[in-house]
Specification:
The chain has about 450 residues and is of the alpha+beta class. It has three domains: about 100 residues, 3-Layer(aba) Sandwich (Rossmann fold); about 70 residues, Dna Ligase, domain 1, CATH 3.30.1490; about 240 residues, ATP-grasp fold, B domain (D-amino Acid Aminotransferase, Chain A, domain 1, 2-Layer Sandwich), CATH 3.30.470. It is about 35% helix and about 25% strand. The strands form five sheets. An eight-stranded antiparallel sheet has the order 13-12-9-10-11-14-19-17, sandwiched between helices. Strands 3-2-1-4-5 form a five-stranded parallel sheet. It has a three-stranded antiparallel sheet with strand order 7-6-8. A hairpin with a 4-residue loop joins strand 9 and strand 10. The longest helix is centred in the middle third of the chain and has 19 residues. It is globular and about 60 Å long. The N and C termini lie far apart (about 55 Å).
């Protein structure tokens, strides 16, 4: 087992990793920018090292500074959390070169799944169903037109190195395709330094379904059920729940088995998430996230399995001791991402929290690193915390969520809590009748007015 883990992240995920490490008897090192000197993860770590100024590229993305922090503190492992360097294959390689364990997948798997075109090729090879589309990158407009006519309009132009909705454009007709290609290429080049794009069939009213996986790199892998992440704004998830209200038991069991088998064949190491679009009873692979996810508490609440704990043990060389038959699913979990944003306009709202009262009670979890008097800096993601509730049924979970949202108080800044108070009382949400376009249409038609 590791003796000391450096956590190359900040906020609630840094605190989440720290708690898991301490429960395993492992010392922790926090790194922080000057903007985060008063952050909770810095206060609670065994050691802390300032790695630079507020700009992420000069601190949390500064690989030499992170390696220096490991050398100074004697850390023998790095956990990257999510975001920042978590899916940077070169960082994983550099850690190996310096004999520092990277608590994450093999660099080759990060590299494969980080290239959306290669990820689709790999998924097909592993027997995972994919969205109809181009076999590789699109080199010119004529090729794009041939592919689009073959799979049928509307089509989605996507950045090969993309994520978070950047470099994605819909072309509903032949007349739209050229502009969609040029815009997507331009956005992809600006965001990722790579203007390669590919085409996929655009699904009109799909759900976004994710399957949580865990493997030990030795051919042992399991799934921990699915999450429905269809409530999104600008391709960013807002509300996640599991199990999905859209799936039946046979669909759930079938796609879980397919994904687990694929990860066994891939000899995947650590935690990961296979993301699908789901429409009319069919699943279509879109990407794999080779890291711990923001919404990992959903399967944790439904299975009782500590994913970060397992992730650390596997990275330290332990085989997977949980079989698929050991996984017991119970009840229903819902996670709401509470951001420092205006609930209707989503305008960022950094500032000082003047009063903070998180909810509690049976089946309630709040993953957050804020506290009363803490100042949320404007430099990073606006996540205040994640409210996760669990109930014996979806109805019980919804009622528990309604109660906890009414208890949750964060004063001094705007937050998205009022949005969730509205959503949990909405008939479509209560009935589980929504898709990936639902939230944006709801907001566009004055749902928060």
């Amino acid at each position: 087992m590791f003796e000391k883990i450096l956590i190359a992240n900040r906020g609630e995920i840094a605190l989440r990793i720290m708690r898991a490490a301490k429960e395993l008897g492992i010392a922790t090192v926090a790194v922080y920018s000057t903007a985060d000197s008063e952050a909770m993860h810095v206060k609670l770590a065994d050691e802390s090292v300032c790695i630079g100024p507020p700009a992420a590229r000069e601190s949390y993305l500064n690989i030499p500074a992170l390696l220096a922090a490991c050398e100074i503190t004697g850390a023998d492992a790095i956990h990257p959390g999510y975001g920042f360097l978590s899916e940077n294959a070169r960082f994983a390689d550099i850690c190996a070169e310096h004999k520092i364990a990277f608590i994450g997948p093999k660099a080759d798997h990060i590299r494969i799944m980080g290239d959306k075109i290669e990820a689709k090729r790999t998924a097909r090879r592993l027997g995972i169903p994919c969205v109809p589309g181009s076999e590789g990158g699109i080199t010119d407009d004529d090729e794009a037109m041939r592919v689009a006519k073959d799979i049928g309009f509307p089509v989605l132009v996507k950045a090969a190195a993309g994520g978070g909705g950047r470099g994605m454009k819909v072309a509903r007709s032949e007349a739209d395709l050229s502009d969609a290609l040029s815009t997507a290429r331009m956005e992809a080049k600006a965001a990722f330094g790579d203007d390669a794009v590919y085409l996929e069939k655009y699904l009109e009213k799909p759900r976004h379904i994710e399957i949580q996986v865990l493997g030990d790199g030795r051919g042992n892998a399991i799934h921990l059920g699915e999450r429905d992440c269809s409530l999104q704004r600008r391709h960013q998830k807002v509300w996640e729940e599991g199990p999905s209200p859209a799936l039946n038991a046979s669909e759930r069991e079938e796609i879980g088995a397919v994904v687990a088998k694929a990860m066994q064949d891939l000899q995947y190491l650590g935690v990961g998430t296979i993301e699908f679009l789901y429409e009319d009873g069919r699943f279509y692979f879109i990407e794999m996230n080779t890291r711990i996810q923001v919404d990992h508490p959903v399967p944790e609440m439904n299975t009782g399995i500590d994913l970060v704990n397992e992730q650390i043990k596997i990275a330290a060389g332990s085989p997977l001791t949980i079989t698929q038959d050991d996984v017991r699913f119970s009840g229903h979990a819902i996670e709401c991402r509470v951001n420092a944003e205006h609930p209707a306009t989503f305008r960022p709202s950094p500032g000082t929290i003047s009063y903070y009262h998180p909810p509690g009670g049976l089946g309630v979890r709040v993953d957050s690193a804020v506290y009363q008097g803490y100042t949320i800096p404007p430099n990073y993601d606006s996540l205040v915390g994640k409210l996760i509730v669990h109930g014996r049924s979806r109805t019980e979970a919804l009622m528990r969520l309604r109660r906890t949202l009414d208890e949750f108080i964060v004063d001094g800044i705007d937050t998205t809590i009022p949005l969730f108070r509205t959503l949990v009382r909405n008939a479509d949400i209560q009935n589980g009748d929504y898709n990936i376009h639902w939230l944006e249409k709801f907001l566009a038609t004055g749902g928060m007015e």
